[in-house]
Amino acid sequence: MATDFWASSQYKRWIVDRATLRQARADDLLYVEDPEHLDFLAIYFAEVVGKLGKKLRLPQRAIATATVFFRRFYLKNSYCETDPFIVIAACCYVAAKAEECPVHIKNVVGDARQIFCHDPYNVKSFTSDNSKLAEMEFYLVDDLECDLTVFHPYRTLLALCKSVDGSEDLAAAQEEEAGEVGTGIAADDGPRYWGTGEGQLELPPNGLQTAWFIVNDTYRSELCLLYPPHLIAIAALYLTCIFHPATHETVAAVLASGSAGTTASAAVDPPPRRSSRQAAERKKPVQDPLAFLAELNVSLPLIATIAQEIIAMYTLWDRYKEDASAADATPDSRGDDEAVVTPVLLTAVLLKMREARFQDMSHPSSGRPVAVNKMLERTQAAG
Amino acid sequence: MDASILQNDPMRMYRSKRDATRRSVSSKYSILGFISSGTYGRVYKAQSLGEDAKIHAIKKFKPDKEGDVITYTGISQSAIREIALNREIDHENIVALKEVILEDKSIYMVFEFAEHDFLQVIQHHATTLRTAITQPVLKSLIYQLFNGLIYLHSCHILHRDLKPANILINAQGVVKIGDLGLARLIYQPLQPLFAGDKVVVTIWYRAPELLMGAKHYNKAIDCWAVGCVMAELASLRPIFKGEEAKLDSKKNVPFQRDQLLKIFEVLGTPEENDWPGVKDMIEYQNMKRLDPYTNRLYEWCQTRVRSPSGYDLLRQLFAYDPDNRLTAKEALQHKWFHEDPYPTWNAFQAAQQQMPPHRRITQDEAPSMVPLPAAPFSHTQSKPGSSTSMSGGGPYVVPSGGNGGNGRKKQRMG
Question: Among A59, A154, B212, B229, which has the minimal tally of Cβ within 10 Å of its Cβ?
């Protein structure tokens, strides 16, 4: 199971389609004035999970697992009917245990209070009662259907890439995280579960780091519910080829030499614009990263789609500003569609949604709880 | 009502919605009786109220209490592990988890029911039949055990607590490895294995590298334990029945002198030729002070295993150097399994009379399964013959005189 994604609970039960995602937000959509705010909330919540996870000193993978738990929980529930902050605390608490780096429940409650009770979240009364968090943990594990083993793109990145040099920090961090890897464990990793690709992609200095950060950023979207993690990793590598200057230079050089796409290791003469120092370093054949990706046994159109969605997330995230004053600085330079969104604003949006939902549940006009479709009302008023 | 409830009880809407759809244990199962209890909680025999009317074993984790009030505390690391691993795996020779029910602040894990376990078989032969377990049965049990272990290891799971009480057998004679409460994924772990649990594996089944203080270990520890189980099935008593040295007040792990001596008495004192890494181990200096012994495993096997290839398998499972120890996969290729008598999928096919009697259940404690609000279930009840394992109870009592009493228990820390 640890190597076989196709036999995992994640593949069998937790990869969903867009329609399912839309259905999951249907109730929230009735209570939000601007539907785009729901996409911003996806970023907002990922940031909250990350903040609490870092304060608890959870490793990146445990934070990623907590984020996946959060997304899975809200496949079945609405933001407006729940308290996402207690859910986030429970996600971090369970993920820490699931990833074998447990933290004490009172630390989770304490750290959560410190973060949530202040700007920009201002949760007025986050519980100080451990048993409230433990209760939420119970409901959470139940809603997660006890599927607590999560696959992430990081492993694919490490399996696919080697860094030429200069990424010692990352390598050291991985070694620290990996613990005893190397004591007879790494020796029998078994076949790659995504296909037949062999060998490793050589990335220029910091190339792997860039791909790693792109993977971190994907958790701000709902991609982890839509696609298998190894495809997200490959899409992150593809984007690294485009956005990471040194990697892009390698790709450009290969393309310029006209041998792109023929073999994974094309012998390339350094193009004239390279400095002589760089040229001297290149003694062995240069690997073509794009050809390497092409030779993986995965659907490239699908990789391109995922890459597009990652870019769409970055576009959205670009308008998400932690600092309200930065937002005020450029009030009119953007059109209405491109208004800057801050956590303070989203906190207010969330509270309004929850209050409206609560009102509707308490004062049903027809005896049954009825939700008011504000979107529909606006459309009708406009028409 | 006003919206201040969002402040005071923000999850109220969610809870009422969830509680309305939740199905209780008692609505799905009828509790037939109590099987055993341990530090984690208790195990019950239950029948599904669905159409199949199947029999199950329900493991109820102990709810934590503050005073007399049962309250929510966090789900234990052990329960999280057992749930997380069981949800991913599926194999004929591993006890299958049917479902998990979270109710009344308690966790109920519903497993397929297994009528017998290795400990029962040993006790049945030792006390009732007063004969050795026959070769076909012995070989079939070990073959199927390895078959399940290969699956676990191929999933990068270390069991870390293999012992007769944790290895079950169903009524069809199929071996089922149980109790993944101490099991762990070893694929790219975020923390060294040592960081989580300072002591793993019940002392009698604990591999020498663990006894010598290794912080890094691997699948070979499970293979050592299978060697111990095989020897115990062959001789009807634990082969290395040492006394565990307890943790000191600072929870330091002590030198397990007696257990190592028990091993050395049979296998001889390890030499650097057999185990090059031994001189770098934490307890090496302590080990050097012990009296030297020579290997007499061959003599030990003469009257007990009664098969040259059986001896050879045991010899390779008891390799001191973990890197030289037979892997589960290699073990299944061993010639012992490929010569007459051959292993069978019904382990008792050749000898039904060797099957132990059915697991005994008791009725009187069954009502305590679901605690009443007024009378939360009592932890003070203690059954004679109960053991720390979900399967080790029933009619047989572990002989518990002298140094044997604590042997089957493991210590869990951290």
Answer: A59
With CB atoms and an 8 Å threshold, state whether B77 touches A99: no
Do A131 and B77 make contact, defined as CB atoms within 8 angstroms? no
- Alpha-carbon span B40 to A240, nearest angstrom: 48
Q: Of B6-20, B57-71, B119-133, where does the model show the most confidence? A: B119-133
Contact B155 A1 (CB under 8 A): yes
Provide the ipTM: 0.81
Question: How many percent of chain A have pLDDT more than 70?
Answer: 73
The CATH code of the domain that includes B293 is 1.10.510.10
User: What pTM was estimated for this model as a whole?
Assistant: 0.82
Question: What is the C-alpha to C-alpha distance for residues B88 and A10, in angstroms, rounded to an integer?
Answer: 9
Q: A2 — contact with chain B (CB < 8 Å)?
A: yes
The pLDDT-based confidence of B19 (bands split at 50, 70, 90) is: confident
B323 and B341 part of one domain: yes
> From B186, which residue of chain A is nearest by alpha-carbon distance?
A185
Q: What is the CA radius of gyration of chain B?
A: 23
Same domain, B110 and B127: no
Q: Is the peptide bond before B254 cis (omega within 30 degrees of 0)?
A: no
Put simply, whether A251 touches B (Cβ < 8 Å) is no
- Give catalytic residues of B, as residue numbers: 161
Domains held by chain B: number? 2
Token representation of residue B373: 């609000």
Name which of A8, A78, A100 to mutate to probe chain B: the one with the most chain B Cβ atoms within 10 A of its Cβ.
A100
Structure tokens at B291: 């009296």
Domain membership of residue B344 as a residue range:
117-352
